Amino acid sequence: MQNKDVFSDVLVSLPEIRDSRGALTVIERDERYSFERVFWIYDVPEGSERGGHAHRTCAELLFAVHGSFDVELCNGHERKIFHLDSPSTGLIIRPMIWCRLFNFSADYVGLCMASQKYIPEGYINDWQTFCDSL
């Protein structure tokens, strides 16, 4: 049996429509990334990190709407870093995947679409607790 890259299908390319007026990217309903909550991140201080948690049941779809950042995903066994710098490319973070967001550009504006409303109990904020939950 072949070892499948557990992060091979997490990047989402959205259609980008360009003409003389500029560019437009659209997202339409898709079973891979339905959402109940949308938020954006900006004015991240230089050197700061965000994330540092996993969700028990919530999935997220992240975009760099402007600027860039890096996302490290870990399933407890494998890690992979993704660099996002295009508003038409998103990254799916599935439940029970530890994520760390870092290396934000000074002009970064990010968009996150979450599959559930904010539920504090749904977060695992401690690495050891996350590992013990696997």
Give the arrangement of secondary structure elements.
Blueprint: E1 11-13, E2 16-19, E3 22-25, E4 37-42, E5 50-55, E6 60-66, E7 69-74, E8 79-84, E9 89-93, E10 98-102, E11 109-114, E12 123-124, H1 127-133
Antiparallel strand pairs: 1-9, 2-3, 4-11, 5-10, 5-12, 6-9, 6-11, 7-8, 7-10
CATH architecture classification name: Sandwich
> Could you please say which CATH topology applies here?
Jelly Rolls
Structural class: mainly beta
Q: Looking at the structure, what is the overall shape?
A: globular
Gyration radius, in Å: 15 Å
Strand order of the largest sheet: 1-9-6-11-4
The fraction of residues in strands falls at: 35-45%
Low-pLDDT sequence parts:
none
H/E series: EEEEEEEEEEEEH
Overall tally of domains: 1
Q: How many separate helices?
A: 1
